[in-house]
Amino acid sequence: MASRAVTWGLHAGRAGLASLFILGGINKIANFGATAASMEAVGLVPTAVLLPATIALELGLGLVLALGLRWAWVAGLTLAVFTLATNVFFHRFWALEGELAQLELSLFFKNVAIAGALVFAAMVSLSKRG
After folding, report:
1. Domain span at residue 95?
2. What gap in Å lies between CA 55 and CA 59, rounded to an integer?
3. How far apart are the C-alpha atoms of 35 and 25, rounded to whole Å?
4. Distance, CA of 59 to CA of 64 (rounded, Å)
5. pLDDT tens digits for 46-105?
6. Would the pTM of this model clear 0.90, i.e. be above it?
7. From CA 71, how far away is CA 21, in angstroms rounded?
């Protein structure tokens, strides 16, 4: 019984974590123009290349992670690096002051926590392969 609960818990945890990226990719498609403008504003150009690549990364690797496919560990590690990289461009708390700096600091460390969960999920996936 405990083994079944652990298995279902791992599936649910992976799917929940991956949903952030799957829904993020869908949102970027639905709001393509606004997302492109946001990327341009922080210097991520050319958006004609970077935005579709970002969408593909979020949707593709999010699904690999959610489904626990063979390369889920690679998906988890790649999404962790991607998540930390977004901090450099979108959550620059060090360049701000006041309440906005506090908000961005919180978002920055939320991403650090997500990256940590992704590394954890990747290592669980990898350990199950060996």
Report:
1. 2-129
2. 6
3. 11
4. 9
5. 999 999 999 999 999 999 999 999 999 999 999 999 999 999 999 999 999 999 999 999
6. yes
7. 16
